[in-house]
Amino acid sequence: METIFWHKKWEKNDIAFHESQTNPLLVKYFDKLSLVKGSRVFLPLCGKTLDIHWLLSHGYRVAGAELSKLAIEQLFKELGEKAKISEVGGVDHYSATNIDIFIGDIFALSGKVLGLVDAVYDRAALVALPEKMRDRYAVHVKQITDGAPQLLICYEYDQNLMEGPPFSIKSAEVTKHYQDNYHLTLMASIDVPGGLKGRCSAREKVWLLNKRGRHPINSA
After folding, report:
1. Second label for 211, Cα 20 to 30 Å away, from 10, 30, 190, 197?
2. In-domain check, residue 220
3. Are 58 and 41 in contact (CB under 8 A)?
4. For residue 159, is it within any domain?
5. In a domain? residue 218
6. CATH number for the domain that contains residue 185
7. Which tens digits make up the pLDDT trace of 68-79?
């Protein structure tokens, strides 16, 4: 997926992927990560998601990675925050109280620049990337977060019926990417009302990825 694709999406305000409310699956399943208040949560390819507002309002710190400067300028404006802007490690760093967003190619973001995170919330990253990039992405995020637990939300549908993004991520692919490092728990599998973009039936799946060595969580 060329970076220009996403830049044009934001420039044209063609952002149907931007939800107008906090994702209800985040609200329902976030506590399964068993984080204490003040924990730092990393959102890859975060855009200006309202999920960031929810996390901050519930006492968590947020780190994010995003390609579009425009998206992050809008995010800080909507948060009512004035960003402190710097350049570090080849990416732009926008920061304010309890929030750090790194703008640029996520593959240029290192663990040293990102800093310690306690969990990853991936609602919009894995599903945004074409198949040839997803292996690299999964490995990279595991590396820069030191295998922090993840709450992963993805879609599963017949990819022949519709082009992504969002792309279809089958359970077998989640297993392929993450089973060597995590205990995988499918927390929910829900029909998308009206189909994905109203074009094809799909299921939205919520995965909990716990680092091996921690006790896996029962979805029940």
Report:
1. 190
2. no
3. no
4. yes
5. no
6. 3.40.50.150
7. 999 999 999 999
